[in-house]
């Protein structure tokens, strides 16, 4: 397991629990696939996993995966891999900050259900565009050539049943 | 022809046309245009993009113009909608190439800071 780490959300320090192997396996796969595409793009940079990012006063996050626009270093896509024993911070607290700062793209990667929720910023807040599962493909129009079959992203669940794995 | 083979053919034609168009640009413009990614989609999909748009849209520029990087948090990019271009070209390969070229230059113009009037004056409307 990884070491515990800290984030600051709405001015409060949150101690995040050590991440379990399945979380890290999924994140590593996703990073590798995104990195393979971003390497060829001059307009986007992929930050190292859980890089410290200051989003607004009182909000310093360490997103699992973060893409920034090369010209401005502004965050435009975040993927958070949810941990079953520490999910509230990602699915509620941090998500509301991402909505507030109008983050253009948010992927909630959920190993509890082996699915990925795709959110886009809209004038009315974050909008859930799709919930991808099984053999559906995770794609993003602004990452030309990027695709990842969801069942491959979540591969390695020995029980074969979503929600029955120690992550 | 299978759907997948048809798509591969459109994609290949479009990619070659964009490369050829890029190669004909004056060097200073080419240097600015070359790093701008171009992606190819069949049709605009509402759940992939945010804005309201015409379903017959041929191409789209997203992100900020070169001179105004703070205008949008999205990375700049051109998206070409190949099935719409194919329909617009009435399934004629030469016309399709021409429309890919015109649409690419139109969207590139937005990246370089031209507005619709500027583009119309250059025959890129």
Ordered list of secondary-structure elements with their pairings:
The complex is a heterodimer of chains A (167) and B (125).
Chain A: E1 5-9, E2 12-16, H1 21-38, E3 44-46, E4 53-56, E5 59-61, E6 65-69, E7 75-81, H2 88-100, E8 105-110, E9 115-122, E10 125-133, E11 137-139, E12 147-149, H3 150-153
Chain B: H1 3-24, H2 27-33, E1 38-41, E2 59-62, E3 77-81, H3 82-88, H4 93-111, H5 116-121
Parallel strand pairs in B: 1-3
Antiparallel strand pairs in B: 2-3
Helix pairs in contact in B: 1-4, 3-4
- Low-pLDDT residue intervals, each spanning 5 or more residues of chain A: none
* Total domains of chain B: 1
Largest sheet of chain B: 3 strands, mixed
The tally of beta strands of chain A, per DSSP, is: 12
Q: Concise description?
A:
The complex is a heterodimer of chains A (167) and B (125). Chain A has three helices and twelve strands.
Tell me what you see in this structure.
The complex is a heterodimer of chains A (167) and B (125). Chain A is an alpha+beta fold and 167 residues long. Chain A has one domain (5-153): tt1808, chain A. Chain A has three helices and twelve strands. In chain A, the strands form four sheets. Chain A has a six-stranded mixed β-sheet, with helices on both faces. In chain A, strands 1-2 form a two-stranded antiparallel sheet. A two-stranded antiparallel sheet of chain A has the order 4-5. In chain A, α2 (88-100) links the parallel β7 and β8 (105-110). The termini of chain A are close together. The model of chain A has no long low-confidence stretch (mean pLDDT 90). With 125 residues, chain B is mainly alpha-helical. Chain B has a single domain (3-44, 56-121), classed as Zincin-like. Chain B has helices at residues 3-24, 27-33, 82-88, 93-111, 116-121; strands at residues 38-41, 59-62, 77-81. Chain B has a three-stranded mixed β-sheet. In chain B, α1 (3-24) crosses α4 (93-111) and α3 (82-88) packs across α4 (93-111). The mean pLDDT of chain B is 88.
């Amino acid at each position: 397991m990884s070491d515990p780490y800290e984030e600051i959300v709405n001015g409060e320090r949150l101690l995040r629990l050590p991440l379990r192997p399945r979380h890290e396996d999924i994140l590593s796969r996703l990073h590798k696939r995104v990195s393979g595409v971003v390497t060829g793009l001059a307009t986007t940079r992929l930050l190292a996993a859980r890089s410290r990012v200051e989003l607004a006063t009182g909000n310093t996050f360490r997103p699992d995966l973060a893409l920034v626009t090369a010209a401005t270093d502004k965050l435009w896509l975040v993927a958070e891999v949810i941990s079953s024993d520490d999910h509230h911070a990602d699915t509620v607290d941090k998500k509301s900050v991402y909505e507030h700062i109008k983050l253009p793209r948010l992927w909630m990667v959920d190993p509890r259900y082996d699915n990925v929720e795709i959110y886009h910023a809209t004038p009315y807040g974050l909008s859930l565009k799709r919930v991808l599962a099984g053999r559906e493909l995770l794609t993003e129009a602004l990452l030309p050539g990027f695709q990842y079959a969801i069942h491959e992203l979540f591969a390695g669940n020995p029980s074969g049943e979503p929600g029955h794995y120690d992550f | 022809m299978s759907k997948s083979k048809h798509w591969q053919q459109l994609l290949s034609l479009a990619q070659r046309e964009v490369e050829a168009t890029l190669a004909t640009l004056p060097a200073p413009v080419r240097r600015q245009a070359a790093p701008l990614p171009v992606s190819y989609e069949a049709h605009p999909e509402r759940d992939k993009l945010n804005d309201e748009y015409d379903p017959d849209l041929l191409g789209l520029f997203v992100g900020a113009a070169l001179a105004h990087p703070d205008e949008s948090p999205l990375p700049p990019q051109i998206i070409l909608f190949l099935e719409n271009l194919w329909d617009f070209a009435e399934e004629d390969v030469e016309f399709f190439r021409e429309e890919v070229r015109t649409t690419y230059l139109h969207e590139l113009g937005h990246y370089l800071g031209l507005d619709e009037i500027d583009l119309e004056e250059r025959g890129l409307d």
